Amino acid sequence: MERERLDAEAVIVGAGPAGLACALHLARLVAEHNAQGRMPAIDPEGIFVLEKGAELGMHSLSGAVMDPRALAELEPDYLAQGAPLEAPVSEDHLFHLSASGSRRLPVIPAALRNEGNHIISLGRLVQWLGGRAEAAGVNLFPGTAAAGLVLEEGRVCGVITDDKGLDKAGEPQANFEPGYELRAKVTVCAEGARGSLAGQLIREFQLDAGSNPQAYGLGLKEVWDIPAGRVKAGTVWHSFGHPLPGDMQGGGWMYALSETRVSLGLVVGLHYSDPGFQPHTALQRYKQHPLLAGLLDGGTLVRYGAKTLAKGGYWALPRLSAPGALLVGDSAGFLDGMRLKGVHMAIKSGMLAAEAAYAALGAADPAAADRALAGYRERFEASWMKADLWRGRNYHQAFQHGVSRGLLPSLVQGLRARQGNRPAHAYLRPGGSAPAPFVADGKLAQDRLTSVYHSGTGHREDQPIHLKVESDTLCLQCNSEFGSPCQHFCPAGVYEWAADGGGAGRLRINAANCLHCKTCDIMDPYQNIAWTPPEGGGGPQYEGM
Ligand code: SF4
Question: What domains sit in the chain, N to C, each tagged with a CATH number?
Answer without folding.
Answer: 5-65+126-211+318-393 (3.50.50.60), 86-121+214-309 (3.30.9.90), 425-531 (3.30.70.20)
